[in-house]
Amino acid sequence: MAINGSVNMSNIEVSTERSAGSWDALLRMGRSLRITAIAVIVVLSIGIALVLQGQVMNNPDLAQWLSNPTLLIAGFSSMMLLTVSYLIGKEWSVVRSQRVVLATALEEESINMARRFNPVVDFHHPEVCREILTQQASLAARLHAPISILELSLAEMGSKPLSPEWRQFGAELSRQVKARSRQTDSMLRWTTESFLLVMPEVSAEEMGVITTRLHNELEGWFQERFDANRRPTLASRGFTTDILGKSSDILRETQALLEEQARHTNPKADGKRMPVRREKSVGLTLQFDISGMDAGGQEFCDRIITQRVSADCIWFVWNREVELEASLQVSDREGTVSAKAVLAEFSTVKGERIAEVRFPKAPDNWVM
Q1: What is the CATH number of domain 282-358?
Q2: I want to staple 331 with a disulfide (CB 3.0 to 4.6 A). Which of 45, 75, 338, 351 is the partner?
Q3: Cβ distance 257 to 239 under 8 Å?
Q4: How many angstroms separate the CA atoms of 41 and 78, rounded?
Q5: What is the pLDDT of residues 340-363, one digit of tens each?
Q6: Do the beta carbons of residue 241 and residue 203 sit within 8 Å?
Q7: Is CATH 3.30.1330.90 correct for 126-269?
C-alpha cells in the first residue's frame, strides 16, 4: 500500500477515469463483435437458403440430395456446430480479456481509494502499520543496512483526537515531517497522540542528528502556528536496529524496542512500569443498547451503531444530551456483551456528534 509522499488527487482521478474508460470500451467492443457475428450468420443463412432454392429448382440431382433427410440433418448439424463453436470461442476470448482489464481496474481503484482515505492522518489501522513496517524492514534487510524508527508524540493530540482542530493539525504535522524527510522514509500514525517516522539506511549517529534537526524545525513551526499558552509539547524517542521483523508480530516488537530505548534514556524509569498504550481502534459496525440517565434525569435506552471500536472504547453518532463521565450500561441483543461504561467525551466530525464511551476494563466476550 503506497503511502509515501504526497498524493496528487487530479492524477488519481484521471488514472481511474482512464481505466474505467478502457474497460467500458472493451465491453462495448465485445458486444459489437457478438452482434456482428450474429448478423453475418443470419445474412449468410438467408443467402445460402436463396441459392439452394434456385439450385433445387434447376438441378434435379441436388434436389434428390436434399431429399435425403440423413444427409440434410448431418449438414445442418455440422453448420450449427461450427457456428456455436465460433461463438463460444469468441465469448471466452472476450470474457478473458475483460477479466484482465477488470482486475487491473479494481487493483488501481483500491490503491487510489486507500490514498484518498489516507489512514496515516485520520486513523491508525493496525494492518496499515504492520504493512509499512514490514516493507521498510525488508528493504533494510535486502540492503544489509540498519533501520531507524523515530516516534514523535504530542500529548495534547491524545485528549481529543477526533476533533476537527486536531485532525487538521495532524494532517499539517504529517506534511511538515514528510517535507523534511527522504522519499524512501515512511510516516504512519502510531497512536492517537504520536506518529512514527520509519527510516531505512539510517545509522544510530545519523538518527541523533535527524532527531535534533526535526525538533528544532518543528518547534519553530509550532511557534508560528500556536500562541504560547496553547503550544503543544513535542516529545520523541526512537531506536536503530538491524533485526526488525524477526519476531512473529512486528507491531509488538516495535513497541518493545521503543520502550526499551526510553528506559535506557531515562534510567529512573527502569523501576517503573511503562504506561500501557490503548489498543489501536478499527472501523467496525456493531449494534448495542445504551442505557442510563440523561442530563434531565430521565432514564433512556438507545440503540446505537458503532463507527469505530477498540479494546476499551467505542465511538458512535449520538445526539442525546448526557453529562460527561455519566455511568452507562452497554449490552447487545444476544446478551453476550453486558458491561458498565462511562461517557468520556463528545466531538464533532463532519457535522456529526460523535460520542466516545469508555469501559473501565474490556468486557467479557468482547469482539476485539
Answers
A1: 2.40.10.220
A2: 338
A3: yes
A4: 14
A5: 899 988 888 878 889 999 888 777
A6: no
A7: no
